[in-house]
Amino acid sequence: MYVRVTSGGHLFLIFTFLINGSYPASGADLVTLDVPVPPNVEKAPLLLEFSPHFSGFVELNSALGKAHFEEDTAKTSGWGLRGVANLPIGERFNIQLDGRFENLKFEDLTDQSIEFGAHTYYRNPDRFALGLYGQYERISSETLALGPKEIAVGLEGAVFLSQSTVLGQIGVEAAQLEGEDASKLNGLIGARYYQTDNLRFDLDAGFERLVNEDTVRKTYSISTAANYRLSDKPITAFGGYRFRSSSMTSGDVPAGDTTSHGIVAGFRYHFGSTSLKDEERNGPLWTAAPYLDF
């Protein structure tokens, strides 16, 4: 004796009819149906591809100098700590982050400044680099509980040659002068010459023009430096000289000139690079004139 079930058979025929039309499908046909397959997410292209070539350096420096204001002369000294990191995005685009703290002493007065910067740029290591930068700086001192601050934005570019590099920056700032809002235009042009991949000589020239109502302050600077990196350790020793000249006028009346000069020396510890030249062409680029404002 057996029981025959017919309702399930009718349901099966209806199901196969809805899928394949008027002809019921065989078991082999059901197995070979074209079922949509989700894409392989692991092979999907990324919008931003971050390179593992993360590099940068940490720097400690100190400076000694003299400042002249009209007939007065004073000794200056200071020390600074910097950190720089660069992260490539894809093959040619880069992001560089900077941080710096400085402690400057002018006779019995002490000024402290903290600065943060960011650069986004395109670089062809064999030809050129071009990008934008932004910077924030705040200065405090013994005479000011909270000193002036500056916010800057600008353009920067570099041209790479076989044994040298020419680079420059130009930007505008929202600053303060004698406690009041002011605007500033600044620029820098520099050259680097590589005697070897680990021996570099720098020459930089800069200017600033700060305007506050009827007061104008102009500053010019020139600096030189030599940098030598050990071949078997990621450590660079450097030393240099800097000269600055500043003049201020209020209306048509000169308010006094200030000049300063001095020497600076220090060390850098590098990571993610094999030489000074490799760091410039593939790591942090915008490291011109790493000197204290003595």
Describe this structure as you would to a colleague.
- The chain folds into two domains: 31 residues, no CATH class; 228 residues, Lipocalin, CATH 2.40.128.
- Strands 1-2-3-4-5-6-7-8-9-10-11-12 form a twelve-stranded antiparallel barrel.
- Helices cover 9% and strands 63% of the residues.
- The chain has 294 residues and is mainly beta.
- The radius of gyration is 32 Å and the shape is globular.
- The N terminus and C terminus are likely disordered.
List its salient traits.
3 helices, mainly beta, disordered C terminus, 12-stranded antiparallel β-barrel, 294 residues, 2 domains, disordered N terminus, Lipocalin, globular
Question: Share of helix among residues?
Answer: under 10%
On the 0-100 scale, what is the average pLDDT? 80
Counted by DSSP, the helix tally is 3
Q: Can you list the strand order of the major beta sheet? A: 1-2-3-4-5-6-7-8-9-10-11-12
Identify the CATH architecture of the largest domain: Beta Barrel
CATH fold field value of the largest domain: Lipocalin
Note the main sheet.
Answer: 12 strands, antiparallel, barrel
Low-confidence stretches: 1-33, 44-50, 288-292
Structural class: mainly beta
Distance from N terminus to C terminus (CA atoms, Å) equals: 109 Å
The number of strands is 12
